[in-house]
Amino acid sequence: MPETSFQGQAVDTTPASDVFLVIGIPGSGKSSVSAELARRFPLGAHIEGDHLQDLIVSGGHLPSPEEDLEADRQLLLRARNASVLARSFHAAGVVPVIDDVVVRRAHLEFYLDHLKDLPLRLIVLAPSAEVVGRRVAERDKVLADDWSFLDEALRTELTGEGAWFDSSRMTLEETVDAILAKD
């Protein structure tokens, strides 16, 4: 077997063209859209907020409607970790696509601060409540019955931020095409 040396091998190359942050409420299509979006690039990475949360195997606190300061702290930790990964992939020429539930201005500003100086494209997925309800009912994940308060927060606090897409009547491919067509 030939010997291989990693000595002198550069990891970082020409930086990637874009960094995507795809946000919305649970059931809005973030994971599906983000994975397909990442696949559209020669080098693309899907960074899923839920998977980063799952790395906490002891003492994890998931976001909930009730006040939980530790859950809030862990939500910001996962945003910071997603941003660190995005910066690393971007520097290596890999287009990172982060997907996460972001509905509050403070949470978005935390992300924006950690992704500053990158060619960030903020994508907000906002299908109708009926479509989201159907999608959540069809999933294996166990979620609260009513996430309408998150939709209300998203539409109240983040209106005017990023490029909004109502994917209610769009296929996955059509949604990704629309995102890529938007400059």
From TrEMBL:
It comes from the Bacteria. Keywords: Transferase. The keyword Transferase applies. GO terms for molecular function: transferase activity. This is Phosphotransferase. It comes from Streptomyces botrytidirepellens.
